[in-house]
Amino acid sequence: MNKKTYAQQYYAKLKAKRAAEKESEFAPIDLTKVRRLESLMVNKDLMKLYKTGTDVDKMFSHEGGIPVGTNVMCTGDPGVGKTTLLMHTLSNLQQQNPNAKCLFVSAEMSKLQVFKYTQRFPQFANLETMFTSDFMGANSKEVMEQLLNNGYDYVLIDSIVEVLDSVKEDAAMSQGQAEKWLIDLCVKNNEAENKDKKHTTFLLIQQVTKNGVFVGSNKLKHITDAHMEMKRDSERDGAGTYIMFSKNRNGAAGIRYNYRLSANSITYDLVTEDQANGGSFELAQGADNAF
Predict the structure, then answer these.
(1) pLDDT digit string (tens) for 228-239?
(2) Could you give all domains of the chain from N- to C-terminal order, each with its CATH number?
(3) Could you identify which of 90, 161, 226, 283 might form a hypothetical disulfide with 248, taking C-beta atoms 3.0 to 4.6 angstroms apart as the criterion?
């Protein structure tokens, strides 16, 4: 008797579930948001971009500059100069735009290491910097949330893996939960949900394995508007280094930009006008600029 009653209850629930699914299948859906692109409107503030005054401007966008409200992932082999080049980029952007709010989050380098950088590149001193080591006794998740809530135009994080490791430990999160938290944090600030209503752009440095494989899940890649890869042709320091965007929704992708990093300067090779217009690749000889 009990078995029969159980079976009856089971099939009654199954029947009700199927009826509910069938009803929802034919429920009307509001499709009024499907419109012609001519009616598409976006916040004009999202059309802004800031220039660094260096050759990297043409790498980041067709217009020449780094757009606001975007996310740029930077990967590369150890020692290829990821931190140096992006600090250099952010520092020049700050110098060219004194009213812009820029932030460098250093989760890998110590204060001594960063200080040595400023001796080589004195202009780096203009960067507002947060050392995660200064907040070892605090919850890193809350520290990042409160800091970014102040509102910044550009934020450089070095590196994602170090920030995520701290958040996982302090907030008892899994890898997936920590990545989702970072994605939500970036999107929230992209959309200017902070005190100063800034459409924040994030420059995110991420590590790669010895085989050049991206560390982390594809979820992080999906929120990025651009993937900037820094590579080296030769094992010798400073030789054959170049930048290539494998993905860039704001500018050109698949173009090689050579650069040379010395003790206190970075030299970029300009791209010829023919190549910029879709012609074959050729570096403009003698057109390098050092900054």
Answers:
(1) 999 888 655 545
(2) 43-290 (3.40.50.300)
(3) 226
